[in-house]
Amino acid sequence: MRSVRLGGSGLSVSKLCFGTLTMSPLQRNMSPERGAELLVYAYERGVRFLDTADLYETYPHIRLALRKAPDYVISTKAYCYDRATARAALERAFRGVDREYIDLFMLHEQESLYTLRGHEEALDFLEEQRALGRIGAVGASTHYAGCVRACVRFPAIRVVHPILNLGGVGIRDGSREDMESAVALAREYGIGVFAMKPLGGGHLIASNREAMEYALTSPLIDSVAVGMQSAAEIDANVAIAEGDAAPMDALRGRRREMMVHDYCEGCGRCAERCHQRAISIVDGRARIDSSKCVFCGYCARVCPQFCIKVV
Ligand code: SF4
Ligand code: SF4
C-alpha cells in the first residue's frame, strides 16, 4: 500500500483510509471485537490510516485494534465550538483510544466561513495542543465547497476532509467541479486532503470501480476514507488502491436503504439533524428522500424512539 503525504501537514498516511462509521452503532453496530478484527485485517493488508469521530463511538474498537496494529495513524473529529468543548473532546479521544497523542483532530461537519469563525476558539485550543505535541495536525470536515475555500483563511487548518466523489453526491452547495476547484485552492495553501464517501454513501455502488478509480487517482486527493464491513470489502479496496480493480465487481450489488419504523411520532428531530435536508415530516411521520441521503446514520442517533435504521 502506497504511503502518501497529507499535504504539508507533516502526516504520512496510506492511500486508503479505513472509515469506521460503518462499524459504529450509527450503521452496522459491530462489537468492539469484530470491529478490531477488521481493522487488524486491513492493517495486515497495508492500511495505516483510520478515521473516526467523537460521534461514532468506535474508540473501543480502535483501542482493541491498536494492540495488534500499533502504527495506525488516527484521525478523529468532534463538534467543538470553544476551548472547553475542544478540551473535553480531545480528552475523550485520548482516553478512548488509550493514547496521549492524536495524529489528526478535526472540527466535524463545518459548513461555512461563519461556522469556522464561530468555532475559532476551539481551533486556537487545538492549535496550542498541536504546538505542545499532543496533536499531529488540525483539520476540518465538511460537505461544503464554500467551507473548503474558507479553510485557507485559518492557518491552524492543515487538513480538510471534504465529501468528494465521481458523481458529486452529497456536496451541499454545488457540483463535483465546484468542490474540485475549492480543493485545488486548499492544496495551493499546502492543506492536505483526504476525501470521504468515494461511493457517495452507496449511491455510486453500481459504478464502484470507476468511482474508486476517480478517488484514488485524482491529483487533488491525497487519501480516501472508505467504510469497510468485511474481509472481502477490505480485499477489494486494497486491491484497487494497488491497481487491480477487478475484485470491486463482486461488490456492485450491495445497496443500502434507510428504514423508518411505523412507530415514528413525527417529532422532527431527525429532520433538524440531517444536514443533507433529506428528511421531511409527511402525514406525521419522517420520510427520507433517498436521492439526497448519504446513509451517514446521524439522524438515527437523535431519534428518541430508535425508529431509523440504515439497512
Ligand atoms: S426523530 Fe424519530 S420519532 Fe422523531 S420524526 Fe424522526 S424518526 Fe420520527
Ligand atoms: S437522512 Fe439520515 S442517513 Fe440520510 S443523510 Fe440525512 S442524517 Fe444522514
Detail the topology: elements first, then pairings:
Elements: E1 3-5, E2 12-14, E3 16-19, H1 32-44, E4 49-51, H2 59-66, E5 73-78, H3 83-97, E6 102-110, H4 113-118, H5 120-131, E7 135-142, H6 145-151, E8 157-162, H7 176-188, E9 192-195, H8 208-217, E10 223-227, H9 231-241, E11 258-260, H10 269-273, E12 279-282, E13 285-288, H11 298-302, E14 308-310
Parallel strand pairs: 3-4, 3-10, 4-5, 5-6, 6-7, 7-8, 8-9, 9-10
Antiparallel strand pairs: 1-2, 11-14, 12-13
Helix pairs in contact: 1-2, 3-5, 6-7
One iron/sulfur cluster binds at residues 258, 273-274, 276, 278-279, 288, 293-299.
What does it look like?
Helix 1 packs across helix 2, helix 3 (83-97) packs across helix 5 and helix 6 (145-151) packs parallel to helix 7 (176-188). The protein is globular. An eight-stranded parallel barrel has the order 3-4-5-6-7-8-9-10, surrounded by five helices. It folds into two domains: 3-251, TIM Barrel (Alpha-Beta Barrel); 258-310, Alpha-Beta Plaits (2-Layer Sandwich). Strand 1 (3-5) and strand 2 form a beta hairpin. It has eleven helices and 14 strands. It is an alpha/beta fold. Helix content is 34%, strand content 21%. The structure holds iron/sulfur cluster (2 copies). One iron/sulfur cluster (SF4) binds at residues 258, 273-274, 276, 278-279, 288, 293-299.
